[in-house]
Amino acid sequence: MKLVLFALFLSILLLVPATCAKHHKAHGHHNFMSIDGEDKRNVWDDVHHMDVEAAINKIKAERPELNVVKVTTGSMVTMDFRVDRVRVWYDPETGKVEGAPKIG
After folding, report:
1. Above pLDDT 90, what percent of the chain?
2. pLDDT by residue (tens digit) across 2-39?
3. Which of 74, 75, 68 is nearest to 52 (CA)?
4. 3-state per-residue secondary structure call for the chain
5. How far apart are CA 42 and CA 89, in angstroms?
């Protein structure tokens, strides 16, 4: 009996993440999170190398409820995670976004 339960547990453990990954890849949900039953974007990988001001405007247009913060690369910041904040890291010499801004 214990062996059957263990086999069932193991199969569920291996099957569920694979099924979720296939679903997310097929439907493009990897950059979205569900908020109040609605999928909302939480990563903006398409603004990488974009002008920082244009990137901030794009993020604010998509998610006006978020606090979008411009941060120069190498700056010290707090380590807290906030669901209402997006940090946009940029190179002050070029004015271009470095990396993909994300909620946190």
Report:
1. 61
2. 666 666 555 554 444 444 544 544 555 457 666 666 77
3. 68
4. CHHHHHHHHHHHHHHHHHHHHHHHHHHCHHHEEEECCEEEECECHHHCCCEHHHHHHHHHHHCCCCEEEEEECCCCCCCCCCCCEEEEEEECCCCEECCCCEEC
5. 15
Domain boundaries defined on the chain: 1-30, 42-103
Q: How far apart are CA 42 and CA 84, in angstroms?
A: 10
Q: Which residue has the tokens 């990988």?
A: 45
Q: Give the tokens for residue 15.
A: 């099957």
pLDDT tens for residues 81-92? 999 999 999 999
Assigned CATH topology for domain 42-103: Trypsin Inhibitor V; Chain A (3.30.10)
Task: Compute how many other C-beta atoms are within 10 angstroms of the C-beta atom of residue 3.
Answer: 7
